[in-house]
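Hi support team,

I submitted a single chain yesterday and got back a structure, but I'm not sure I'm reading the token output correctly. Could someone confirm the output below corresponds to the sequence I sent? I've pasted both exactly as they appear in my results page.

Thanks,
R.
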Amino acid sequence: MREFVFTLTYETGVDPLMDTLAGAPEARSTALVCPVSDSEVWRLDRVTGPPETVERAAALIADEERDLLSVSDRGCAGRRYSDVLSATARRAVVYTRVSEATRCDAVSLIASRYLEGGVFAEVTRRESEARWRILTESDEKVGMLYDTVGGTLREGITYRFEHLEDATESPSNPFASLSLRPEQRQVLELAAENGYYETPRETTLDDLAAELDCPRSTVSYRLRRAEAELVAGFLSTT
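Hi R., thanks for writing in. Yes, this is the structure output for that exact sequence:
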């Protein structure tokens, strides 16, 4: 499997989602994108960050009247379906499917026209940059893809090639599950959503205990165990 990686940089006012993320440097959106054909694509977007940024970004992605796919001046015509699969204060996952897309200059659909053997992509948006990682069996026509995307971009978007090489890691999974007990996951998610890990902290163990209606010692223990599992999992993969 080969991976083709490049970055698109957006000027202010070119894309509302990028403008939203640019206003919150700690926010990001990671999407898995799969073109089913040259006229149909589905994607899963996972947005994390401050509550107001997550809410605004998720609303933009889920807006079925808004085209966030095309990178040219020509919008995507076609049928669109979106659904917010999960949403908390600091995280949202949105499913989108576009079908019968005609005259659509979406990066993923352009890639499907040139790359044989199936295409799968991951795009990470942060601040003013969208980093695309396209996985494909054959890179025979990557040069044509590169030239087409570069020649398609509307004013205000610039293009930077990063690399073309063998894929070394799998794309991130917005539904990835941690090895946590349900009660540990519950307190960890609540702590993150309420700003326990912000600097300075926006909530306390007492506040979490009150919301969960549990003793403070129980909440503290579950949180420490969850954190220990996270650290152990991280160290085992690095």
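A quick pointer for reading it: The mean pLDDT is 86. Let us know if anything else looks off.

Best,
Support desk
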